[in-house]
Structure formats: C-alpha cells, structure tokens
Amino acid sequence: MEKIPSILNNDNYIQLELPSLFEKLENLIRSAYGKDPLARVMLERDPDKLRRKLDEVTEMVEIISRDSGIPVSELPDIRPLLNKIKPEDAFLEGSELNQVKINLSCFADMNAYLNSYRENFSLLWEYGSRIHQHKRIVAEIEKTIDNQGEIQENASPELRRIRKEILQLEGDQKNVLLKVLKRYSEFSQDDIVTLRDGRMVLGIQQQFAGKINGIVHGTSGTGATVFMEPMETLRISNQIQNLKMEERKEIIRIFRFLSGLIREVRNDIFYAIENFGILDYIHARARLSLAMKACAPSISNKPEIRLYQARHPLLILKIGHHNVVPSDIVLGESFRTLVITGPNAGGKTVALKTAGLLQIMAQMGLHIPVNPDSSISLLEDVLVDIGDRQNIEQDLSTFSAHIIRLKQILAEANPNTLVLVDEIGTGTDPREGSALAIAFIKELTDRRVLTIATTHHGELKAFAYSAEGVENASMEFDLDTLQPVYRLKTGTPGSSYAFEIARRYGLPDDIIKQAEKIVGPDKGQLENLILDLNEKLQQAEKEQREWSIKLSEAEGLRSLYEGERNRLKREKIEQRRKAAEEAKRIVDEANARIEKLVAEIRKSQAGKEQIARAHREVKELQQNIDDILEETTPKPVAAGEFHQGDVVWIEALREEGEVLNEPGEDNKVWVLVDEKRMQLDLFGLRKLEKESLESRRIFRQETRGQEKLAEGILPELDLRGMDSYEAIEATSRYLDQALNQGWDEVRIIHGKGTGILRQKVNDFLNRDKRVEKKRLGKWGEGDTGVTVVKLKKESGE
Fold first, then answer.
1. Could you tell me the pTM of the whole model?
2. What is the Cα–Cα distance from 285 to 54, expressed in whole angstroms?
3. Is 744:762 a contact under the CB 8 Å cutoff?
4. Mean pLDDT across the stretch 116-130?
5. Can you name the residues that pair with 225 across neighbouring β-strands?
6. Nearest Cα to 752, choosing from 355, 308, 293, 301?
7. Running DSSP on this structure, what letter comes out for residue 41?
8. How many helices (H) and strands (E) does the chain have?
C-alpha cells in the first residue's frame, strides 16, 4: 500500500492483526482510486455515518448477489495526466489519450449501471450520479487514436494529404536507391536498403566508402559497414523530412485539441475519480463480506458488545467459514468484565482477538461474521495487551513490559473503551501476579470499562465469581478426548486440565499424585468442582441437542396439522358458500311461486278454492325448507349434564365448540370455538355425539411440550415457527392458562433468528397487565432465544 493508513500505526490494532485484514481487503480493490478511501479509513464514531457505511456495503452485497456486480476494473491512474495538461499549451500523446478514454468509458458504464438500479440502491446511486458520461470526448479519441496509441490517417484532411505525399516520395526514394545499389553492388555489404535516423541508406564496406558520393549516417558496431545516403536521394529525403515535420505539427495540433476537450472537464473527471474510488472500496468491502458470510451489526446507544455466533475473520479466510467454531461474546448488560480461563491452545487468545478485531472492523464500516442479532457500540478505542512483550533493546523482561503496557491502559481506559488483556498476571510469582491482576481488573470494573482478560490463575476465577460486574467464562474442552472445542462458554470458569492432559500423555502417575499434593486440597477441590460442573454442562448440552432433534420432529408434525387445519377451514368456507347459494336459490324459487300465486289470485278475483290452493303451496314450501334445515343441522344426543371435553352445537353462532371446564353454579362454561375461548350459557348449547374437535387437537399441538389442559400445562411456551400474529395470540391464551394453573414464572421460547419475533412478543408482554416483570434468558436458559416472564399473582381469568 503506497499510503499507510494512520490506523495501521496503532500498536493496539497491530496486536489484533489488523494489518493482515487490511492486506486481504486491499487485494480485493481493483483500481488505484479505490485505495485512497482505504488509506483514509478511521474508526467511525458517528452512528448515522456508520449506519450509512454499513448500509452501502449491504446494498453492494445485494447487487453482487443479483449479477456479476458493478463494472469495476483495473484502470490506469490518469491523475498525473490530468495534472500534466493543466497548462493551456500542454497536451497528451496518443497512448496517454487512450488511458483517459479507457477511464471515461468505464465511468460511463458505472453511471449507466447504477442508474438502472437507482430506485432499489439509492445510496450507491448517489455516488454513481456524480460520475458523468463524457461521450463526446470518448468518441473523438476513438475516431482519432487507434488501440496502439497511434493517430489514425483520417484524423484530419491535412494529415491525410501529408501522409499520402510522404508515402509517394518514400516509394520514389526506394526506387532510386535500388538503382544506386545495383550500380555499387561490388562495394555494398549486402543488398538491403535500411533506415538510419529516419533516412534510407545503403550499407557500404568500410574500405570502399570513399568511392561513394553521399552522406555518412554512421557505422555498424564492428565498424566494417558504413551507412551512406547517396547524393541521388538527398533531395527526396529532405522533402520527406520536411513533410514529417509538417505531419508532427498536425498531430500535435490534433493532440492539443483533444487535450483541450479533456482540460475543460478536468475537475469533473477528478470528482468522478473520487466517487469511482469510493464505489470500488465499497465493492471490495462487499466481496469481503461475502467471503466471510458476514452481515451488518446493529448499533447500540450504550457501551456494550453483543456478538452472537462470532468467528475470527482471518481464520474464516484461511480455513473456511464452516471450519471456524463460533462463540457468543457479550459484555455490558449484567457484567462489564469477562475473565476467560481454560487450557493452553484452547482458543482464549483467539476469542480475545475476535472481540477486538470485530469491534474495529464494524467501526471501519465493514460487515462482520456474526449472527444478525449482534450489536456493537461506538467506542473511542480498543486497548490491547496481547503476546510476549519482552524487549531486549530496552532491557525489559516480559513482566516489566506487561506492567508498562498495563500502566498505559489504565491511563487511557474509560467507559467508552474496550480493554483486552491476554494472560494477565503472568511472568512473575503466581500469587503476586494474581493479586496484581485482580487489582487491575477491579479498577477497570469500578470505572465501568468493558474488559476481557484471559488467565490461568485460579484466584481470578474466584474473584470473578464473587465480584459484582465480573463474570467467568471458559473455553470448552472435550473431557472424553481431552481436546479443545474452541467455543467460548460464559458463566462457568475453566480448568487448565494440566493433570488430566499429563495422564493422557503418559506422565508417571506417582509424579502426578505428588503434584496434586503440592497443589493442595483446596485447589484440587476447586478444579474437581470445575471438572464436575463442565461434565454436567456437556451432558446437559448433549441432552439439549437430543431434545432439539425431537423438537424438530414435533415441529414437522405441527406443520402437517397446520396444513390440515387450513384445509378444513377452506372446506368450511366453501360449504358455507354453497349453503348460502342453495338458500338463495330456495328463497328465489319460493318468492317466484308466491308471486305467481298472488297473480293468479288477483286474476281469478280471489276465489276460496284458489286461496286454499295457494295456502297449501306456501305450506309445502315451508315444509321443504324445514326438511333441508333438519337434514343439515347436527343431531344432538339425549340431554344430560355437560362435562369438560364435550363437543357442543352453539345455536347462536351455528358453530361447533368444545367445553373447556366443568359448568359452574351460574350455568356457564368456557367453550373453544375456532381457537377462540368464549364464556356461554348452557341453555344455548346442545351436546353432540363426538369425541373431540379437529380445532381442539390443533390447539393442543400449538402448545407443544405441554400436557392436555385437563392435566395441566408446563411453565414453557414454544412460539418458534409461528408468525407474529399467531405468536401473540398463543402467548395471550397461554398466560391465562398459566395463571389458572398457578405458575409464578414461565418461559416464552421465541428463538434468536432475526430478532423480529422476540421484539414483537416482548412489545406485547411490556403492555400486558398479567406480566409483573420479564427478562431475557441467561446462559443455560436459552440466552436471547428465551424471555422469562414473572406473572402477577392477582391476575385472573
């Protein structure tokens, strides 16, 4: 990179390997112009400007996904040429004019391409609209200069005349030379006419040069051949040279004309170059986003980091997205300091670097490889102490160098910075190192600084467990294989697994037992506790995966039931439509017959016999309608008491329903009708000879994982797979049931996904009077995929 961005001179960012990422990004930039915005990049601290930068990349990603992307190519840098023609009399040569033409043609393509997408990609079109098309200049250069940079013969009538005369004279000159060559053949070195300094000459042997009347234009490298222009062709040669000078003057005149056209729009071209470079830079960021399967995080208005399914970007580019284990890195809500423990080579440093590098990338306007629900805040800086900082030249040990760096961090840290410290407290006596590390972390925590530190010191685990605002985390370790899993797990400390690994690799058992005695029972008990806890957690996660499979199967069944329910609904609507059409037909026929009878009565002046016949026909119509109603009305069974689970016919609604509870003293029951609960009087119901309703079975399926209402419900509702409307309706029903069942606290499972379902459900819960308070799930409860709700005891039906 010609211009080194100031951001790459920051030692904090160097430790996070930002230069390596810059190199990857620079390799994706196609033009020299795109490297300028890269060289000027800084951490953005204005939320509106950062959102725009991220949205620009999002638009570009969509464009690339639609087709091959914007027309960006490796253009020659014409800025020096534009500076060259700034003086009025300056001009560009043919090859230089071709470079300008190539640029202007590409600029025109860019403008036209983005203009076709201007409605859908307005942010990118803003840059495209500033790149103007200079078609006249391109056309003038194309008809004047060929692809090799040579001026074409038809560039002007005068140039065509001059070149025609030159061609004719060169033919005459060649004929004369051939005659002379034949005359002096015994003196010539060969029978070839050659060019020397633009003139046609003969090659004469050196010893015979004095015998030829002509002008010497040089000798060969060995001196054996003298190149002579015979006096016979001198006049023609001079005419040719004069014409070539005229040709050059005409060419310069044409070059000056074309250069003048470019000079008139010189500033506009500079402006186009700037905007083209920005588009090239956005294009490179979008290609990087696609390579990492990245996305734009949301921007929080408070100091926090919420990186879900975060992966280290350089690892993705090296070994592939699917080979990098993701981790959730969260800071700023219930704790601002995270202490990560675990075995060597378990991924602690990678997790540390991932948090820092993703924070910097996002503030640079880059997409980051995380879940879309992730968010970052706009921090002032990221302060880092990673790696062995030993400096022999300054006579600093590793510990001394770390202490100096920690002092600098303390001087700069504030609530709007992120501090990352690797292997804090190492390089000296473990007890003293632990004490210094605890004091350092406590100071940063008290200042409310976002901090992540890695360590092997057990004392820090205990400190993180008891200190407010501090949380333990560990890198997962497979206890069966004693191999790292590289996944960060928040909420539990990790073990170094030193003794277990030593046993695995065959260190004598008596040595290991002696080491365990030296460590002492307290530390041994702590390590055993951690091991036991991790073992239980791994078992719980295994069971969770098994339940997830079962849940997927249940969701599949639910989908089938949902389809069947929709089919029944469609059939019901169709039956109603047909019934209405049939009823209309019957009524129309009845009206027609009655009108006919009335007309006959009037015509016959209402005789007794005619009136009696009309009454009989009307009675027949009424009986016909009554017969149809009797056929289509569900048949009730013998009257009796109503019980929970009975299927009933509701006369007022002309619908079937299912009784949800035993009748009360007020002779009212709750009835489920088309998935809606309503309280109805018994006298308006008729018991039907059915076991249950299809709609009722669907209702039970929607609240999967729960027992039948008659047997009670579990304190958990799973909304995954529903849309927002269905989820809110199901949540409202469930809260009533949970209160009736006597639950104080329940879990609403909405999943992580895009976060829309979580937001809609939480908005509903915020307004619901049955909810006393709520919170997102903690680690082990489902994290942000679950909302835990505490219900008001006084809330009722």
1. 0.63
2. 10
3. no
4. 93
5. 205
6. 308
7. -
8. 23, 23
Roughly what angle, to the nearest 10 degrees, separates helices 458-466 and 521-603?
Answer: 40
pLDDT digit string, tens, across residues 54-96: 999 999 999 998 876 788 888 999 999 999 999 999 999 999 9
Q: Please write the tens of the pLDDT for every residue from 639-689.
A: 347 887 888 888 766 678 888 888 877 778 888 876 667 778 887 788 887
| Angle between helix 47-66 and helix 266-292 axes, rounded to 10 deg | 80
Measured CA to CA, the distance from residue 152 to residue 595 in angstroms comes to 98
Label the pairing between strands 745-749 and 716-718.
Answer: parallel
In the numeric block, which tokens belong to residue 417? Answer: 């910075």
Domains by residue range for the chain, with CATH: 6-134+265-292 (1.10.1420), 154-259 (1.10.1420.10), 298-497 (3.40.50.300), 555-632 (no CATH), 633-702 (2.30.30), 711-797 (3.30.1370.110)
663: amino acid identity, one letter: P
**778: alpha, beta or left, given left = phi > 0 and alpha = psi -120 to 50?**
beta
DSSP single-letter state for residue 153: G
**Residue type at 244?**
K
pLDDT tens readout for residues 757-773: 888 888 889 888 889 98
Nearest to 589 by CA among 626, 553, 624, 615: 624
- Dist. CA 479–CA 115, nearest whole Å: 59
328 and 402 Cβ atoms separated by less than 8 Å: no
Distance of alpha carbon 65 from alpha carbon 43, whole angstroms: 28
How many other C-beta atoms can be found within 10 angstroms of the C-beta atom of residue 773?
11
**What sign does the dihedral 419-420-424-426 (CA atoms) show?**
negative
* H helix or E strand, kind and range, residue 759: helix 756-767
Count the alpha carbons within 13 Å of 642 in the hemisphere toward its beta carbon. Answer: 28
Q: Are 709 and 660 in contact (CB under 8 A)?
A: yes
- Tell whether the model's pLDDT for residue 572 goes beyond 90: no
Nearest to 21 by CA among 356, 336, 270, 361: 361
Cβ atoms 603, 564 nearer than 8 A: no
Can you read off the two tokens belonging to residue 274?
A: 């700037």
Structure tokens at 426: 């190492």
Largest CA distance in the chain: 157
Instruction: List, in sequence order, the alpha helices (H) in 374-427.
Output: 398-412
Alpha helices (H) in 479-638, listed in sequence order: 498-504, 509-519, 521-603, 608-632
